[in-house]
Design a protein that fits this description.
Helix content: 10-25%
Strand content: 25-35%
Number of strands: 18
Number of helices: 7
Order of helices and strands: EHEEEEEEEEEEEHEHEHEEHEHEH
Structural class: alpha+beta
Amino acid sequence: MSEQMTYQLSEIGTVNMRIWGRSSGRLDPLALFWTGSGIELNVQASELWVDVETDYDCHEQWMSVLVNGAHVSRQMLPKGRSEICLFRNMNPQEIKNVRLMKDVQAMSDDDGACFLIRGIRTDGSLHPVEGRKYKLEFIGDSITSGEGTIGAKKEWDWISMFFSSVHDYATLVSDACDAECHILSQSGWGTLTGWDNDPRHALPLYYEKVCGVLKGARNEALGAGADYDFSSWQPDAVVINLGTNDMSAFEQPEWRDETTGQTFKQHRNDDGSFVKEDAQRFEQAVIDFLYKLRKYHPDAHLVWTYGMIGAPMINLIGHAIHTYSAKSEDTNVAFVLLPDTTAETVGSREHPGKKSHEAAAGVLTSYLKAYLAAK
């Protein structure tokens, strides 16, 4: 048996390791905040172990492992520090591409949520990880978090087990386009408000932070609330998939903050149409977010996608994009309608299932490949 060597991530360096997902830039340890975040290595060895530390108050952490692009394992992680085997007894002469992925979104209502990688152990050598051709950023809600892509169709429990970044359209598109990706997503959140009219649950409010949706002293110490360094990673395209929960807000009761008394509500008219002022309020949120994205990504193609759980907001989103483009004279922005989920493609919690994500990824991949090839 070859000698086992232990490495901290800072000892591996960026040539022999790719970090996936938006991070604070710290390596010892590396905090995985967002869904799909993790590390990728090329290892010539018979076995590989990873030193992880996780914690939670209510939503446990899950991780997936891909070896040579194949999804070989998925597991719930125990609290505390553990050494997890990623592969064992494989041909020590062959170089294996290994990717560890955080399978669960940033759980904003769990102050104890934490997933740290502290190092690796192997009996072989590490080799350079080739860079991918493009960079893509995805911003969304439960769909982009991969909620529903795993588990039986009958499942309704809102738990970590039914989230998976492996099968979600963002990962599928990135792999098909030979792109690195960052995913920023929150189940139930929107552009203006969350599904329940809570105006604090709007992704644009937290975009400038590393992972501002996470709270708690530990996450603060790990840099979740720090300003993100946009110069460190500039995407070729930013894909926004928001609007589904903004639509739900029109159907839900008024939100009220019991501490401050603040209230918020999106309204419909008696005939079912959107109240004009509330529709305009949503459109302005779309416009404002596009301006914010352009500020931080001057050269990126901005692509607003929608439609995997119906498309009742399509006209409002389309009008907002047109208004933004006309006022800003920014023509590097587009809208892509994604296929609706059907009885055959639905997954757990009546969310888009694996087949639905594959269909959406097909449409978006075709669009982005054409754009990137012509860039």
